[in-house]
Amino acid sequence: MNEDNIKLEELIALAKDHNEKQEKYRQTMLLLAKCVTVGVCALLGCIALFVFIYAPKLNNVLTRVDAMLEEGETIIANAEKITDDLAAIDLEETMENINKLVLQTSDGITSSVDTLNEVSQTVLKIDFEGINKAIGEMSEINFDTLNKAISDLSAVIEPLARLFKR
């Protein structure tokens, strides 16, 4: 029985040793699990911080990029329309129209110059001396005498007017 006890004691010692090693591994695994948990929490914290700090800025940048792309599309559409319009222009007809417009403008200017010459000739024909003489004669009129004559005439005509009204 001694031999059995010794074997049993060896087995018990081996089991204790094995249990101690398992406890040591369990504590190491627990420490590693805590480290991994802290690392994951730190990573999640960094991600949350990034989202709260940089997401609005990134959203603004993306909004501006989207607006610029829309403006670019509008500019390209306008450029295509202008290109189509320019391709549709008949350059020879346009040049002919410009030449006609220049000729009409030239004719209008010539006509205006002719009219201006006629007006200046008419102004030159005016008898300024006669006008000055008439102004001088008008200044010699005695307005007091004229007013008295008009009053006298009114006094004579007024009774006649009353007579014919009846």
- How does the helix and strand content classify structurally? mainly alpha
The coarse overall form would be rod-shaped
State the low-pLDDT regions, or none: none
Largest sheet: none
H/E topology pattern = HHHH
Question: Distance N terminus to C terminus?
Answer: 180 Å
Q: Into which percentage range does the β-strand content fall? A: under 5%
- Count of distinct strands: 0
How many helices? The count is 4
pLDDT averaged residue by residue: 84
**Helical content, roughly?**
over 70%
Radius of gyration using CA atoms only: 59 Å
Give a verbal description of the structure.
The chain is mostly helical. Helix content is 95%, strand content 0%. It is built from 4 helices and no strands. The chain starts with a helix and ends with a helix.
What's the SSE blueprint?
Elements: H1 2-88, H2 91-125, H3 128-139, H4 143-165
Summarize the structure.
The chain is mainly α. 95% of the residues lie in helices and 0% in strands.
Task: Supply database-style keywords.
mainly alpha; single chain; 166 residues; 4 helices
